[in-house]
Amino acid sequence: MCELLGMECNVPTDIVFSFTALATRGGRTGPHTDGFGLAFYEGKAARVFLDPNAAAHSPIAEFLRKHSIKTELAIAHIRRRTRGQVTLANTHPFLRELWGRAWVFAHNGTVRGIKQRTLGRFVPIGDTDSEHAFCLMLEALRTSFRDYPTKRSDLREAIAEVASELSVHGTFNFLLGDGRALYARTDTKLAHIVRKAPFGKATLADEEVSVDFAEVTTPRDRVAVVATRPLTVDETWTLGEPGSMWVFEEGRCVSTLASPVRGPRRKPHP
Question: What is the dihedral of CA 249, 250, 255, 256, to 10 degrees?
Fold first, then answer.
């Protein structure tokens, strides 16, 4: 399985602390050696760094750990291959345009038989089941709304519903961003924390690295972090309920929606 990392904030913030933990799991403390990616939003656009090599040993990952690129929304992924070859085209997160803005998607799990489903406007570049599912999600949203919905709750509910429908194919933990919100669906495992005043000290679980957030934040800052597994040892993380989806905006969890599997899971092919 892969691992996910997301950050959504009310002020531009760097993800160096959390990404350091994730990158360490990508080949040093974990088996996720089949590539990594990190996307930073700037308004409607997203800057995406990808490398099909292990994050723990990647010069690109080292660059990202040493440079403070601030953003209000970021999505990262370390891959342990289950479907598709280890190539740049198969490296998460994936990016597509819809309604004049970048959508970024990273997935943890396997959705078997998803490629038998007919695609629409959105076509995969690689050959993973994950990217195929992402294309199907965006097509469902495109056919449901002519433009970006003015009522945010309509979009949230539509994403939760299409996720439920696609999850019959298998494990469907994912992070999805649109520049305005971070959508995080728990199928089996996901956790989040919202850091806000009064800020304290945090220590990574995978590295001997600590940060006193009181020294690098202001009292108005709020930072939501989502990860497959908690990244720190001295903070209280909220665990996701399987079949649910969090929505984060401006550093807050603004909604938790039901997103259960719609029907029995598809059985693996023999």
Answer: 80
- Catalytic choice (2, 9, 135, 253): 2
* 3-state SS, residue 230: coil
The length of the chain, given as a count of residues? 270
Active site residue 9: no
Q: Tell me which residues of the chain have a pLDDT lower than 50.
A: 269-270
CB distance 75 to 39 below 8 Å: yes
Q: How confident is the model over 33-92, as pLDDT tens digits?
A: 899 999 999 999 999 999 999 999 999 999 999 989 999 999 999 998 777 789 999 999
Cβ(233)–Cβ(205) below 8 Å:
yes
**In the chain, what are the domains?**
3-258 (3.60.20.10)
Identify the three-state secondary structure at position 266. coil
In the block, which residue shows the tokens 């971070």?
182
Which residues are 50's β-sheet partners? 37
Q: What is the pLDDT of residue 81?
A: 77
d(CA 8, CA 256): 15
Q: What's the CA gap between 87 and 124, in Å, rounded?
A: 14
Residue 90, both tokens = 């198969």
